[in-house]
Design goal:
29% strand, globular, 5 strands, disordered N terminus, SH3 type barrels, alpha+beta
Length: 77
């Protein structure tokens, strides 16, 4: 997966292998910038617990959302 996914604002989970209790496949997650994590091919996302955790970037794909949807995600945090 390209490293630019680590800096994407939103990611969609494409597999939850190893993390079925924390991640839902096909769900969009808000990503938080973490340059150190990106160097290790990890992404920091807010998961089902409402907390941010590091996950392998291979579990996600970047997604571009319409501005209205981005605003809705921002209000939900």
């Amino acid at each position: 997966m390209p490293r630019k996914a680590a800096s994407a604002q939103f990611l969609v989970c494409v597999t939850n292998k190893g993390y079925p209790a924390s991640l839902e496949v096909r769900k969009v997650y808000r990503a938080l910038e973490d340059l150190e994590a990106a160097r290790h091919r990890l992404v920091r996302v807010v998961d089902e617990s409402g907390e941010d955790y590091l996950y392998p970037e291979a579990l996600f794909a970047p997604v571009e959302l319409p501005s209205a949807v981005k605003k809705a995600f921002s209000r939900a945090s």
